[in-house]
Write a structure and sequence with these properties.
Length: 494
């Protein structure tokens, strides 16, 4: 079992892969360092003397500035390390993108819809247009479970507190995200449940949907119904009859779209789980598939690595706008851009936003960046895409689903039970979490440390698990009945 790791030969800091007591002698190549204090799992220690004001190097990149002199063998964390990041920056394009070698085609078993799109689930979704009908949607969901039969895999309602008393971008975001979800191919049938007097009412939403299949999408305005629950159940019965005709069939994995997100990260996330997802992303893209990376604030400090992988200057410019636009969002609201990481991140060993971002972006693998999506946009280009959304787990994961992700790979070092509108596979960075929370965790990357597993072998195992999940294998959050959504709110409430 590995006890510590120097991620790159140029790094001035190494990471404890298991708790290391004071006095432990660490050997990196021909050099040795004796630890001056206890180092918790996932935390950093100095491999050489670091002067005050000197950048601390990890992942072959600065993760911050030493606040004081740090001797070799000392613990490096928030007490002696600070961010070195600035505000809105200017960037230059230095392309370093290398296309991936094509790989053999593979297949999953999905549901082909009438418009040619493909879903990995055949569910019936109840989508409220406004929070006022959330409890009605919940009552309909509970009473409609009798329709979960045959190829109908679930009936789910997606309550949210939006749809009225909104202005500007907030109102636009709500309408766009709701329309994206209504069109999502994981739903074989959708009941759009309106109140009748809200800003984002059904007639308004129809304008965002464009052409739609009336057999697959039905509408109910509660204020126009004497018994909205009873009427809704009749409509769901019709939707179930329609959706029940779909059967799984072989589909090329080139049509698979996978969202990538992390949350509750620890010091091992950027060493085990996130790089494994990055290798998975390369495996899928090499077969013509698509992945989406989001949570823009957790690109700060690692953004140039993504910018230099852009396929052309236009995509580079879009990435610059993505990053600086999100920084401007913080500044407009008078907030510190780098007020990150969270208390849980710090407890797990992450000290600065650079430290967090360099680990977070490991999920992008090595593929060129082929496209940049605004919040609410749906993916159009195959390959690796960047999506504008905040770091918040529910908001970002919902944005991934709305962008067209069939499922979300969610890496975590601390654990979380939540789910998004699409299957949300939890991937642990450490084996302790996988053992402690078996009802949350679907896939454990901690074996890279505890069992010294081959990273490429583990990535292939994850790839196979994703194909199985796309073909119908349920994830833990589905088995627990979790299905959450949240929309990005930025402005005032009337």
């Amino acid at each position: 079992m590995k006890r510590y790791i120097q991620i790159h030969p140029n790094d001035l800091a190494a990471v404890a892969l298991s708790p290391l007591p004071k006095g432990t002698v660490v050997r990196i190549g021909e050099d040795t360092v004796r630890l001056l204090e206890d180092i918790p799992q996932g935390h950093k220690f100095a491999l050489t003397d670091i002067a005050a004001g000197q950048p601390v190097i990890k992942y072959n990149a600065p993760i911050g500035i030493a606040k004081e002199a740090i001797p070799a063998g000392a613990w490096i964390h928030i007490h002696n390390l600070k961010t070195g990041l600035g505000e809105v920056l200017e960037y230059s394009y230095s392309p370093k993108a290398l296309p991936l070698a094509p790989a053999d085609e593979c297949f999953f078993r999905g549901y082909r819809r009438k418009d040619g799109s493909v879903g990995i689930r055949n569910e019936i979704w109840i989508i409220p247009t406004v929070g006022c009908v959330n409890s009605v949607a919940g009552a309909i969901e509970r009473k409609a479970q009798r329709y979960v039969t045959g190829t109908i895999e679930a009936v789910k309602a997606f309550p949210h507190p939006y749809g009225c008393s909104q202005m500007g971008d907030d109102q636009e975001n709500t309408r766009t995200i709701l329309a994206d979800l209504i069109r999502h191919p994981n739903a074989g049938g959708v009941l759009v449940l309106g109140l009748g007097c809200e800003n984002s009412n059904i007639d308004v939403l129809k304008g965002y949907l464009g052409e739609y299949d009336p057999g697959r999408i039905r509408f109910l305005v509660c204020q126009e119904s004497r018994n909205e629950v009873g009427d809704a159940l009749e409509l769901i019965g019709e939707l179930a009859e329609y959706a029940g005709r779909f059967q799984r069939e072989p589909v090329s994995c080139s049509e698979l779209v996978i969202g990538m997100k992390c949350g509750g990260s620890d010091g091992l996330s950027g060493i085990t789980a996130n790089p494994t997802v990055g290798r998975f992303s390369d495996l899928l893209i090499a077969r013509g598939g698509t992945t989406i990376l989001t949570e823009v604030p957790e690109m700060f400090g690692a953004e140039t690595l993504l910018m230099n992988r852009c396929i052309n200057e236009k995509v580079f410019e879009d990435t610059v706008k993505l990053v600086n636009g999100f920084k401007d969002y913080f500044m407009r609201h008078g907030q510190t851009i780098y007020e990150n990481p969270s208390p849980g991140n710090k407890k797990g060993g992450i000290s600065t936003l650079e430290d967090k971002s360099l680990g977070c972006t490991q999920k992008s693998g090595s593929a060129p960046v082929s496209g940049v999506l605004a919040y609410g946009d749906q993916v159009r280009r195959k390959g690796l895409n960047l999506l504008s959304a905040p770091g918040n787990d529910l908001v970002a994961s919902t944005a991934l689903a709305a962008a067209g992700a069939h499922m979300v790979l969610f890496t975590t070092g601390r654990g979380t039970p939540f789910a998004s509108p699409v299957p949300t596979m939890k991937i642990s960075s450490n084996s302790l979490l996988a053992e402690k929370k078996p009802d949350w965790i679907d896939f454990n990357c901690g074996t890279l440390v505890t069992e010294d597993e081959d990273p490429d072998v583990l990535a292939r195992e994850l790839f196979d698990r994703v194909i199985e999940t796309a073909s119908g294998r349920t994830v833990k959050s589905e088995e627990a009945g979790c299905h959450d959504m949240a929309i990005f709110r930025q402005g005032v409430t009337l």
